[in-house]
Amino acid sequence: MKKILYIVSLFALVFASCDPMEDIYKDVDALSNDNNIHSLEYTLTADDYSNIGGDPAKYESFSSSAPATDFLPDFLDGKYPTLDVTSSIKVTYDFYRGGLSYLYDYNDYLEELAAMDAYTLSDTDYDALGYGKYDNFDYNVKIPTVLADFLLNKYPDAVSGKELVVSYNYYNSGVTSVITQFWAFDGSVWAESDKVAPEVPGDVTVYELEDEDYDLMGAPGKYGNFSSSDAPENYLSTFFGVKFPYAAEGDKFLVLYKYYAGGGVTETRAKEYTLTDGVWGEYQSTIAKTDQYLKTANGWLFDPTILYTMVADDYLLLVNYVKSDIGAGYLDSYGTAESYYGANSYYVEFNIKEGNYDASFATWQDAVKAGVKAFLPLKFPNAVAQVDGVDVNYVISFGGYESSMVYYTITFKCSKSGPGSEFEFVEGPTVK
Amino acid sequence: MKKTVRSILSMAALMILSVAAIAQTTVKGVVVDGSTNETLPGASIIIPGTATGTVTGLDGTFVFEVPNGTKSLVVSFVGFLNKELTLNGTQDLGTIKLESDAVGLSEISVLASVAIDRQTPVAVSTISPELIAEKLGTQEFPEMLKSTPGVYATKAGGGYGDSRINLRGFESNNIGVMINGVPINGMENGKVYWSNWAGLSDVTRSQQVQRGLGASKVATPAVGGTINILTNSTDAKKGGSFSYGIGNNGMEKQSLTLSTGLLDNGWAVTFSGSRTKGDGWVKSTDYEGWSYFLSVGKQINDAHRLTFTVFGAPQWHNQRYTRGTIEDYKNHKDGSRRNLDYGFKNGERFNTAYNYYHKPQASLNHYWQINEKTTLSTSVYASISEGGGRSTDGKDKYWLRYDNNGKVGSSTRVTADGYLDYDSVIADNAASLSGSRAIITNSVNSHQWYGVLSNLSTELNENLKLSGGVDLRYYIGQHSTKIDDLLGGDYFVDVDNNGASKNINRAANTKLKKGDKIYYDNPGEIMWGGLFSQLEYQKDALSAFVSASVTESQYRRTDHFQYLPGNQKTAWQDFLGYSAKAGANYNLDEKNNVFVNVGYFEKAPFFNSVFLNYANDINPDAENEKVYSAEVGYGFRSNKLSVNINGYYTKWMDKSIATTTTIRNEDWRFNVLGLDALHMGVEMDMKYQITNELSLTGMASMGDWEWISNGTANGVNMDNKDDQTKETLTIYSDGLKVGDAAQTTAALGLDYQILDDLKIGMNYNYYANLYAYFNVADRDNANDLSQAWEMPDYGLFDLNVKYNFMLGSLKATVYGNVQNVFNTEYFSDATDGSAHDWKTSYGFYGFGRTASMRLKIKF
């Protein structure tokens, strides 16, 4: 009987320790629960702006005069009081960047034009002036004098400051074209005015819709204009896509179009369209922006970290740097790889197998560290060291090839703002 | 319970006393197996017509006080025919030989090289059919061996038949598995797929594991050991049985056995059949399996006996394939039962991991007693299998696949509930202008295998026996992938990333439909010729053997996809392997014995190592694997106690390993050379008969399994056959622990016969020193020499109960089993992660508590 008891108690002893996963589960819990650390994404709602108050509440957006960094730390603190240090939130909010001043000027200009009288010389006018044979002017005609006299007769009651748009036919080398000019009356004499269209930024192309363009768009083709029922924003994005299929990302157009404003009045108006991510969009004064905020011991801070993945051109940048500054002997015969840091733009990698970087580096990690340190000022010459008092980190991703491709990240911090930026090693490389 | 025990004990004592009051006679003897002379522990000796009796001790002996005038005794043991002995006063009955109740079993035992206690010099554990009936419960067949030394058996993904077993740290392709002496390891890769044999436990007569080189005369890949399974043959007695069982998760099983017994005209027929179905403990791993077994025996005359056996187990089962991280399991609603490999297709549950297979195996055994000294045993067998498993294919197959660590990949499509999102795939396939982008396929792996195994034995003199024979095989395996479901598309185009047809004999833009072959179609053929011989010496306490075998294997690969007609077959590739073994057992006295064995063998590399890059390219570096092994052991047998202790040393050289690595987005296939491993350890098992009713079993096994060299790997670019670049990797394996099997295991078991009809048992198994699996060929980073993640140790507790009763005039038995009684959560299978810790490793949890109950009625 005693033996049975011994055996049973031996069993009991062994079973006492029977939760093999206990230690691991403690760690799992520590990962997910004990520390309330999360990476979240959040988009501000109308209620959020009104809770924030001030200008953001008034306009439901932030702006350069009411920047998000002034308001979001407090807001996030109130919204997520229990998140622990190192949590991060990507906040998406509306940002008012203002209108385009040149576009205002241009629309003012168009309004002025609309307000002006226009006069087009008729056949009778050419006859009266003695050019009735061809009903046009040519290089023999002293146009300033002829027109000045003509307008004085035509508008005998004109008052000082009167402006006029004058159109006439002009013959040159077999071609007759219509010339449109602005003329002004100073109380005694008519003269061509110095009025010109407002200057348009260099990267903007001006395009005025033609009748065939309206036809292409369907309904607007009926009257050759847009209207409140055929609004331009309903057509223009598609139209640009069709009209300029080979436009490049970022191309900008100032489009001039006719708009039936009602009461028999058709106006000429202007909008700016930009090709972004393959879509033509009208310039918006308020846009969505996303910034990351980090929970730190000092509360929520705007995170200016730059995440960057090196592409082929970046490795080439380094290859060329080695060629010019370290020694052309390190380059391979194609000029696409160097064996000082190990950068290879053909394979888009650092070759980290021993013998593919200079023997002066003890390890490949040292070689890559030096390589990225050399690369950063070349790539980001105007980097800034701090944003709102927070150091700017550059987390660089690269491929390291030894016997297979492994992706790593290495972190540097901008230690001196550009131009002539400088960088300081922080940590890495670590496997991504 | 203590009270009951006490009252039963005192009752027994009273009975003995009352017997003692009458005049007594002492009878003693030793009960042995008539065909092998092996002692039979636990055989019962009863005075006919009474309940008075005794059982033999662990050394087969018994001493019995019988009342004066007792005329006879009946000796009985499971698996043997009863024997009645006439008594004549006090006497020593000497050796009592029991004959098997199965016709032809002893002949099969010889063909199968079944080891005999205190005679065959190998480390061995035998599982009796009674033990299987009592302990199996919801376990998979290989798990029956878990309480024997050196074994690590798990359910792997948890699907029906998806279990696996490692022996002394070696995987199934280095464990010889034989059914009735016929090797069943896959001819091409040596692996054993237990789902092919799902109904096997129903018809198993005995299961013996010989650790190390073993006693097998034929060449087997036995580096870790040999698992020798004998099925039922024809029963010598007429009758049958029916059983019905139910278990957790909707498990239900019916089985039936019928036997004619040995008829006067020399015929005997036995049939068994069973059906099992259930939902599976893991989510969406439902299954249905059938098994059939037919054995027909004919005793032609005293010299000739024929047995024909056919059995098979057609089944289908949904599987779990993708391994997950602990964190993901823990945070998932299904916990450790989570299965990522299914979703809902048109409203019906559908797995991407699914297997169906049917491998009938038929054999005709002929036993010829040529003369008193010479016998010839021959087995002619055939196995024709059909089946395969589900996979995914297409340019966007990753819509339906996970990252290999069980994480949802950037392309993986899952619903908000976490199921595979077939509906979105179906929509995209339907909208595609270039055919289905992701489809369901079946990877077909059917084969035909024909063999002859013949063994001639002759006694040269009283002490010397010579045997020898041939082992001939022809094998052809069909490997192809067939379209199973276009998932909403009208057709599928089988092209590579460059738009070239994967079948060069078919136009690239061929619109393929369900049932069409895609991706690959490459039959493999193997011809195998083996010669073996063995000389056995036996005199008094000493038995010894030397044996040798030579094997010629020839491989030929045919590729219908990558080559033009006329150029699709390779020449036969020849490999020569051989083995030499010797051993001796010496019985120091009636209680103590010692043994030693040594062996060396070279075996041909597997088919896949010869045709390296899934093409008809011959690997010039294909090397024979070499194994050297030595072992010593000690055994003790007394009436109450039996103990076995042994130590082993196995050195494995030039292990054949290949791996695929991605270099610059192209797949390279590497063949690794020069990998050596050393497996050594100590094993102990014991049984202690505390009282006639109470017995204790124990086992402890400590292994030290390590890679002991670095390797070199040469690679070829598989995605660009024109690439002549040489890539060489160094494999930094020296000093790494072998993974995927617990190096330390221990077990304790207690069986208690509470009443004559009621028996309970409890078992505890413990696993430690368990490292996660890793493909050693992937350890090519000089800066990463860390051991694989060491998984948490775990221990599991099982309970079983057996109750015999009479149902009218029929004998009935109820079996009850509970596995993992305390519902312990544990990780049973893991693949090592990048940081060699639990966070990055991924795998499967073992089953929680499961239970089953079975009623068996004999007639």
Number of domains of chain A: 4
The residue fraction in helices of chain B comes out at: under 10%
Q: How far apart are the first and last residues' alpha carbons of chain A, in Å?
A: 63 Å
Structural class of chain B: mainly beta
- Mean pLDDT of chain A, nearest integer? 85
State the major sheet of chain B. 25 strands, antiparallel
Contiguous uncertain segments of 5+ residues of chain B: 1-21
User: What would you say the CATH architecture of the domain at 356-383 and 443-486 and 518-858 in chain B is?
Assistant: Beta Barrel
Average pLDDT for all residues of chain B: 89
Query: What's the CATH C level of the domain at 356-383 and 443-486 and 518-858 in chain B?
Result: Mainly Beta
Counted by DSSP, the helix tally of chain A is 12
- How many DSSP-defined strands of chain B? 49
User: Which strand-content bin applies to the residues of chain B?
Assistant: over 45%
Which word captures the global form of chain B? globular
Report the C-alpha radius of gyration of chain B, rounded.
Answer: 28 Å
Percent of residues in β-strands of chain A: 25-35%
Rounded to the nearest angstrom, the radius of gyration of chain A is: 35 Å
Largest sheet of chain A: 6 strands, mixed
Q: Report the count of strand segments of chain A.
A: 22
Number of discrete helical segments of chain B: 6
In CATH, the homologous superfamily of the domain at 356-383 and 443-486 and 518-858 in chain B goes by the name TonB-dependent receptor, beta-barrel domain
In brief:
The complex is a heterodimer of chains A (432) and B (859). With 432 residues, chain A is of the alpha/beta class.
Task: Give short descriptive properties of this protein.
heterodimer; A: 432 residues; alpha/beta; 6-stranded mixed beta sheet; 5-stranded mixed beta sheet; 12 helices; B: 859 residues; mainly beta; Immunoglobulin-like; Maltoporin, Chain A; 25-stranded antiparallel beta sheet; 49 strands; globular
